[in-house]
């Protein structure tokens, strides 16, 4: 499994049972859910409920399903999953729908697993590749990475309405691009080292190819898709990027493997400075750090920094709140990133905290020089939340 140095000999690819994407797809939710269960529970925060309740109510009524929402507490902790599992038991719910961002979706999976029922992901933004996977990322109440929790099955259904994605703030799609670009950078490193994937076993050609396809689509379509979403439009580029961020990156990271970028993301959550940032924003710092750590060709690193700056992702420590911190803070980040169970040990060479510290510190001057040479703006520190 992830983060071990064992060299499995079998290959695996795992996936959700069905993936549905398109403008207005939420109108089909009832008919798809009715094939999975008869008594669903929808887990979402109030913002997402406000955006989806009327469409879901019509769709569920048409499918003969009751409509029951439960408010998500906001943090994907073990305690929150236990609380939702109790509600599931109390009402005899037989399928739980995680509705919203990655945090609500991860909690629905965990609660569904606790209660022994099936689960469905309905992302309302293309902000992460959480919806398709058979795992949740568990956090502490304070927002620090705690662990990966693995399940024996993927969601029975992933349904994403691209109209909702286009109406959401563009920052969510941008974060999803950051999460998805890391997928190929990490899959490639795992492939080089013949390392284990999150699905267990080694990567199939299919898994690695899907990770690469996600990357190719994003270089081609991310910039026009972000412009379209800023204007609340669904274009073919938006459809392509939503598929890359959600389905391809999801299958890719899970079945082709994680390496340093996500471990560094996890390390960044260990310090409060980064807590206002989206998952995919922190992951982008992990991607740049991994490229430096593995000694990728200079032109490749510079191109990646320039592209992701144009996408609107952070490419400097300044932009993730770590511009002028004491060494102790960065040391906390790299110690957490190199914890024994972390996926950084899937890199094709031995990685120690000192190396990661130097790579992380190298991000700031390199990105500043790339941005200056490309005429891109100087980085600004994030507003405090
Ligand atoms: N399990 C996995 O495989 C996996 C993979 C990647 C990320 N993750 C996890 O996903 C989480 C991050 O997810 P996230 O970045 O989506 O953040 P999030 O889930 O914390 O929140 C997203 C925010 O977006 C809002 N929102 C959602 N849709 C909206 C819309 N259409 N319009 C307006 N607002 C909307 C929600 O109200 C919420 O406040 C982290 O916990 C991360 O670890 C898990
Ligand atoms: Zn991720």
UniProtKB/TrEMBL annotation:
UniProt-listed Enzyme Commission number(s) = 1.1.1.6
An example of a Pfam family matching this protein is Fe-ADH
Pathway, per record: Polyol metabolism; glycerol fermentation; glycerone phosphate from glycerol (oxidative route): step 1/2
Q: Which residues form a coiled coil?
A: none
Q: Which InterPro entries match?
A: ADH_Fe/GldA, ADH_Fe_CS, Glycerol_DH
In this chain the Alcohol dehydrogenase iron-type/glycerol dehydrogenase GldA domain maps to 16-162
List, alphabetically, the CDD domains matched: GlyDH
* Co-factor remark: Binds 1 zinc ion per subunit.
| SUPFAM superfamilies with a match to the protein in the record | Dehydroquinate synthase-like (SSF56796)
Q: Which residues bind glycerol?
A: 129, 179, 262, 279
The UniProt catalytic activity note for this protein reads:
glycerol + NAD(+) = dihydroxyacetone + NADH + H(+)
Q: What class of enzyme is it?
A: oxidoreductase
Q: Which UniProt keywords apply?
A: Metal-binding, NAD, Oxidoreductase, Zinc
What would you give as a GO molecular function for this chain, any one?
metal ion binding
Q: Which coenzyme or cofactor does it need?
A: Zn(2+)
- Write out the residues that bind NAD(+): 45, 102-106, 124-127, 133, 135, 139
Protein family according to the UniProt entry: Belongs to the iron-containing alcohol dehydrogenase family.
> Per its record, how is this protein called by name?
Glycerol dehydrogenase
């Amino acid at each position: 499994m992830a983060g071990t140095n064992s060299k499995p000999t079998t290959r695996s690819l795992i996936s959700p049972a069905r993936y549905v994407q398109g403008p207005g797809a939420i109108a089909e939710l009832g008919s798809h859910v009715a094939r999975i269960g008869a008594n669903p529970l929808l887990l979402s925060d109030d913002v997402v409920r406000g955006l989806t309740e009327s469409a879901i109510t019509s769709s569920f009524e048409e499918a003969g399903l009751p409509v029951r929402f439960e408010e998500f507490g906001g943090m994907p902790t073990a305690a929150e999953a236990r609380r939702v599992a109790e509600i599931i038991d109390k009402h005899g719910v037989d399928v739980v729908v995680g509705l919203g961002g990655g945090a609500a979706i991860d909690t629905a999976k965990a609660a569904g697993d606790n209660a022994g029922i099936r689960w469905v992901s309905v992302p309302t933004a293309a902000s992460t590749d959480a919806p398709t996977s058979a795992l949740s990322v568990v956090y502490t109440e304070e927002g620090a990475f705690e662990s990966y929790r693995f399940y024996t099955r993927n969601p029975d259904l992933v349904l994403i309405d691209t109209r909702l994605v286009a109406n959401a703030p563009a920052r969510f799609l941008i974060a999803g691009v950051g999460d998805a670009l890391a997928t190929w950078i990490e899959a490639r490193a795992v492939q080089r080292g013949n390392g284990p994937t999150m699905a267990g076993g080694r990567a199939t050609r299919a898994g690695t190819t899907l990770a690469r396809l996600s990357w190719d689509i994003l270089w081609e379509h991310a910039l026009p898709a972000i412009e379209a979403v800023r204007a609340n439009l669904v274009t073919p580029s938006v459809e392509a990027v939503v598929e890359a961020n959600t389905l391809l990156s999801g299958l890719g990271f899970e079945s082709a493997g994680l390496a340093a970028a996500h471990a560094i993301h996890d390390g960044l959550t260990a310090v409060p400075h980064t807590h206002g940032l989206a998952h995919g924003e922190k992951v982008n710092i992990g991607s740049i750090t991994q490229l430096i750590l593995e000694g990728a060709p200079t032109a490749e690193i510079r191109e990646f920094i320039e592209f992701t700056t144009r996408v609107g992702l952070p490419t400097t420590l300044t932009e993730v709140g770590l511009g002028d911190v004491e060494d102790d803070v960065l040391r906390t980040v790299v110690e957490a990133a190199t914890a024994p169970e972390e996926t950084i040990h899937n890199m094709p060479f031995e990685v120690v905290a000192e190396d990661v510290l130097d790579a992380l510190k190298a991000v700031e001057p390199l990105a500043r020089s790339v941005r200056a040479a490309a005429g891109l703006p100087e980085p600004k520190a994030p507003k405090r939340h």
